[in-house]
Design brief:
about 190 residues; mainly alpha; 2 domains; two-stranded antiparallel ribbon; 5 helices; 2 strands; elongated; Rho_GTPase_activation_prot; Plexin-B2; semaphorin receptor activity
């Protein structure tokens, strides 16, 4: 639907295209869209996965109208904040991303931050990731449980103190043309 290449029989093509244009016009109506989202969220069958898919499709459909998308999201977000304040649980908001608007917020932030991450922050974040990975792999890592001696995740921490030493192993590569490559490993 997004690319405009629909696999529809010619006899029904005009009717389907007209229906899609009318639906597109409805999506551009703020009151319709907000009521549509509320109606979907009130359905018991509307699972968390379906909410993620719907929010993603809505983001793609309205990507060209980011101001309108932001206005819809802002309206829904204010309603969500009011619900949490009335329920006296504002600390729980944005914890589990259970609503369409929370997923919309995530998508909106991805769109807005993309250029900055690409141009400025991407390389330092990648270097930080590689440095942390290097530090984790410096010490012993349990191959079965995926727990490590040096990790930021306390649930992935090796419980016992493991004694280890560093070894240099010569690795022979078949058809590589090189006799051997020295590789540092832990015993």
């Amino acid at each position: 639907m997004i690319t405009g290449k629909l696999d529809i029989p010619e006899a029904r093509r005009q009717t389907v295209e007209q229906a899609l244009n009318q639906f597109s016009n409805l999506l551009n109506s703020k009151s319709f869209l907000i009521n549509f989202i509320h109606t979907l969220e009130n359905q018991r069958e509307f699972s968390a996965r379906a909410k993620v898919y719907f929010a993603s499709l809505l983001t793609v459909a309205l990507h060209g109208k980011l101001e309108y998308y932001t206005d819809i999201m802002r309206t829904l977000f204010l309603e969500l904040m009011e619900q949490y304040v009335v329920a006296k649980n504002p600390k729980l908001m944005l914890r589990r991303s259970e609503t369409v608007v929370e997923r919309m917020l995530s998508n909106w932030m991805s769109i807005c931050l993309y250029q900055y991450l690409k141009d400025n922050a991407g390389e330092p974040l990648y270097k930080l990731f590689k440095a942390i990975k290097h530090q984790v792999e410096k010490g012993p890592v349990d191959a079965v449980l995926k727990k490590a001696k040096y990790t930021l995740n306390d649930t992935g921490l090796l419980g016992d103190d493991v004694e280890y030493t560093q070894l240099t192993v010569n690795v022979y590569v078949q058809d590589g043309g090189i006799d051997s490559i020295p590789v540092k490993v832990l015993n």
